[in-house]
Design a protein that fits this description.
- By secondary structure, the protein is an alpha/beta fold.
- The protein has a single domain, classed as Thiamin diphosphate (ThDP)-binding fold, Pyr/PP domains (Rossmann fold, 3-Layer(aba) Sandwich).
- Helix content is about 40%, strand content about 15%.
- It contains eleven helices and eight strands.
- The protein has an eight-stranded mixed beta sheet, with helices on both faces.
- It starts with a helix and ends with a helix.
- The model has no long low-confidence stretch (mean pLDDT about 95).
- It binds iron/sulfur cluster.
- The site of iron/sulfur cluster has 12 residues, from helix 9.
């Protein structure tokens, strides 16, 4: 156990049950580090998830309140919870790429539309890995997976002309970013900004799944190979222009933090106003 896990995580859940060499821990640690650097305590945050590798390894380790929803529905649960908890408490969700950009996308868009405070860390293992390695919504074109033995031909949600972050921006999300898990300091700083938005924030973070993606797409479960493969296909926004190999443009895509009312804050204010009017009418 290190200082961060002593402070924030459940000892009996450490070490993680993720496969050896999995990059999920990098994404998880970046969020915990950001929480620590913002001087937040365990009781300042409720940590939720729904299903799959990303959720299983993260929410249950949180030493404060946590919850698991059904696949793709965690955003709706979080919106309801938002109304029940003190406004100053934060909700953090760690979800997978299928949960965020596939089955859960409709619920996620409504959370963004209402600007409900939640910081969604999309831990993207590039497909359905906890079920054996089928392709998903962010699987890069052409790669071999368990369900695309001749190469992935379905368009994905990360292509520049149909980037899912543009969809979420159009729906009303107020902070949107993308990273790969080995971005280190930059990923921590982005998570801090996401947490400081009193509204809907989403950080899309790609990480290596060596067990299925590594084996099927890269022909090897060698951890270093996969880390290098992801790094070689990522570049900060603005530095990717001449490199056709780049799949992931990293950094902050959109920052309109604290620019419009948060969902539960609006409802609380409206409720108070209605109660005031009702009392005024009753006193006449
Ligand atoms: S199956 Fe892949 S994503 Fe899931 S824990 Fe193992 S290495 Fe990580």
């Amino acid at each position: 156990m290190d200082k961060l896990s002593d402070k924030y995580l459940r000892a009996r859940k450490i070490p993680s049950t993720a496969c050896s060499g999995c990059g999920l821990g990098q994404a998880h640690k970046a969020m915990v580090q950001a929480i620590d650097e913002l001087d937040m305590e365990v009781n300042d945050i409720i940590w939720g998830t729904s299903i799959g590798c990303a959720g299983r390894q993260t929410f249950a380790t949180w030493n404060g309140d946590n919850f698991a929803g059904t696949h793709g529905r965690v955003y709706a649960i979080a919106r309801g919870l938002r109304l029940a908890i003190p406004p100053e408490m934060k909700i953090v969700l760690t979800v997978g790429d299928g949960d965020a950009f596939g089955i859960g996308l409709n619920h996620l868009l409504h959370a963004a539309r209402s600007n409900a405070q939640m910081t969604v860390l999309v831990c993207d293992n590039l497909g359905y890995q906890s079920t054996g390695g089928q392709y998903g919504w962010t699987t890069p074109p052409g790669v071999v997976t368990d369900s695309s033995p001749y190469g992935m031909s379905d368009p994905n949600w990360v292509q520049p002309e149909m980037d899912v972050l543009n969809v979420i921006k159009a729906a009303g999300g107020t902070f949107l970013a993308r990273h790969v898990s080995m971005d280190g300091r930059a990923l921590v700083d982005t998570c801090k900004k996401a947490l400081q938005n009193n509204g809907f924030s989403l950080v899309h973070c790609v990480f290596p799944c060596i067990t299925n993606f590594g084996k099927n797409a890269l022909g090897s479960r060698n951890t270093v190979n996969m880390f290098n493969w992801i790094k070689n296909h990522a570049a900060p926004l603005g530095e990717e222009e001449d490199n056709q190999e780049i799949i992931w443009r990293t950094g902050i895509y959109y920052d309109a933090s604290n620019s419009r009312p948060e969902f539960s804050q609006s409802l609380r204010e409206q409720t108070a106003e209605i109660q005031r009017r009702y009392q005024d009418e009753g006193s006449h």
